[in-house]
Amino acid sequence: MPGLLLRTLRGENASERPVWLMRQAGRYLPEYRALRAEKGGFLALVYDSDAAAEITLQPIRRFGFDGAILFSDILIVPYAMGQDLEFLAGEGPRMSPRLLDAALDSLHAVPERLSPIYETVAKVRAGLGPDRTLLGFAGSPWTIATYMVAGEGSRDQHDTRAMAYRDPAAFQAIIDAIVAVTVEYLAGQIAAGAEAVQLFDSWAGSLAPAEFERWVIAPNAAIVAALKKRYPDVPVIGFPKGAGEKLAAYARETRVDALALDETIDPFWAAKALPAGMPVQGNLDPLLLLAGGSELESQARRILDCFADRPHVFNLGHGIGQFTPVEHVEQLLGVVRGWKRG
């Protein structure tokens, strides 16, 4: 029998709520910090499939989450498309050549850069109990394009938004190329053992409505449709962070199986506005988890109660912060696991 998380993503509204946390495999865990100190930089960890599998499994061993999220990075796709990638301490990722300065067709694909990720997936699946769901993921095309164009992250995605307005045909070619690689990448993860996948669109909130339709909804819909042709029973979770009132259109038009909500979304509104019966995921503020205390517990219960009438995966509204105390995670899990749908 599939685990609770997978059943929920397929539309079952059980009396208990499955729980996993975005970035649950990472810097807040002492066992992760110890392994990273031994192994070296972030990208080296991602490409060491034994280490990456161990990191993916660490939070499952400690907390017993219902899902294990692959330890990797969204920028593996442009890395496989031929851009160079490095992570600079205190500054984040850098990609070169940036597509502000170089043409897309100047990149030379390196598809073998995807293979170690599939090896990680297979190793995690072999080490994961049958009642735990393995989640793969990729970045959504708009978010990936912002890094490919600018060569780094930015607060408002100014360079990429300007390019999309200035030369929409060239930008469409970038988006289409990302879609094609992402479909193959996620299909490869599924073939290796991933039972569900999530599309992270971290910068979706920076776009005007018409641009959101073109650069967020349309490419994600294309990815979902292509994956469903190959793997109709594998749930796809969409996470368009910052989408706000555009969430309902995203849910309808992309045809994702489940929708992850960031912390700015009122769960009461979402419960009423989103398609009936659609599984939702989220959406506790990660800073509440950092703070802990009675407010953490009351807000977690509010989210649980608001989504009582639909399938719901408890999660954060974004990734867990690196300074989050382990004890606060345990406190949150006590609330979620103690809650029952009436």
Walk me through what this model shows.
By secondary structure, the protein is of the alpha/beta class. The protein has one domain: TIM Barrel (Alpha-Beta Barrel). Helix content is 49%, strand content 13%. It has helices at residues 4-9, 30-39, 42-46, 49-63, 76-81, 115-127, 141-150, 158-166, 168-192, 209-230, 247-254, 267-273, 286-291, 293-306, 326-338; strands at residues 67-69, 84-88, 92-96, 133-139, 196-201, 236-240, 258-260, 280-284, 312-316. The strands form 2 sheets. It has a 7-stranded parallel beta sheet. Strands 2-3 form a two-stranded antiparallel sheet. The longest helix is centred in the middle third of the chain and has 25 residues, at 168-192. The chain is globular. The model has no long low-confidence stretch (mean pLDDT 96).
Which labels suit this protein?
alpha/beta; TIM Barrel; two-stranded antiparallel sheet; 9 strands
The first-level CATH class name: Alpha Beta
Based on secondary structure, the structural category is: alpha/beta
Helix content: 40-55%
Give the ordered list of helices and strands: HHHHEHEEHEHHHEHEHEHEHHEH
* CATH topology heading: TIM Barrel
Number of strands: 9
Choose one word for the global shape. Answer: globular
Strand order of the largest sheet: 1-4-5-6-7-8-9
Mean pLDDT: 96
Number of domains: 1
N- to C-terminal distance: 24 Å
**Beta-strand content estimate:** 5-15%
Radius of gyration: 19 Å
Contiguous runs where pLDDT drops below 50 for at least 5 residues: none
Query: Which CATH architecture is right?
Result: Alpha-Beta Barrel
